[in-house]
Amino acid sequence: MSILTPTKGAQTIYRINPVAKLATAFLLSLALILTIDWLSAATALVLESVLLAWAGLSVRQFFFRTIPVWIAAPTAGLTTLLYGQASGQSHFEFGLIHVTDGSISLAVATALRVLAIGLPAIVLFVTIDPTDLADGLAQVWHLPSRFVLGALAGLRLVGLFLDDWRSLELARRARGVGDRGRIRRILSQAFALLVLSIRRGSKLATAMEARGFGGDTERTWARESLFGWRELVLIGIGAVIAAAAIAAAVLFGTWNFIVG
Questions:
Q1: Which domain holds residue 242?
Q2: Residues 159, 231: one domain?
Q3: Which of the listed ranges 69-78, 97-106, 150-159 does the model predict with the highest average pLDDT?
Q4: Neighbours of 119 (CB within 10 A)
Q5: Integer Cα distance of 198 and 79 in angstroms
Q6: Cα gap 122→128, rounded to integer Å
Q7: At what angle do helices 38-52 and 229-251 cross, to 10 degrees?
Q8: Whether residues 93 and 199 fall in one domain
């Protein structure tokens, strides 16, 4: 069985309060944002990869969901390699491109850091139910109900973007205007999707105001949002990974504080 194949125990991640997942992702991101070095990012990535086995995603789901991260990491690394700060021995130079020992080190660190921040963030996010997140934000973090309900409505509409894009594509093909000019077609569909999204958002906002969701009255919630030992364990694991990454970089002298 694959290490990413869902198991009964893996489904525990879905029962953890979403605000705990947000807190964990914040801790990991904060620790890696403070420094640009390959060791801290590599340490965090190795420790995170062990935990991703219990995320409840199959191999196909994992790589499909994280495609943007796998694209962004080498892209950021390549850009840093070619145009990063030059230091140490020079290996290649042409115009603005200057590959040195320093730019190579920064490129590796940048690519690893994107993976270490992006992969757990996406995996934690895809296991969040929007309604559970709204309950947690309102009952655990005590955020204003108007903000929470607006965020919930927005998250509910995110899933419609892909359906709208497919519908627009099929409609254009049915009219015979979607078979040629890929770049022009994508730009045209993107604009149409933007217009459609604005119209839908305006209608939703009007409907929510009409139903009293915009009032300042204190609200009650149908489902109780619990925050217990599971949530504390997840946050603790995130804190341990963040601390281990920082400690490894400091102990081996690779710590490179981002400020200065």
A1: 12-132+227-251
A2: no
A3: 69-78
A4: 23
A5: 35
A6: 10
A7: 150
A8: no
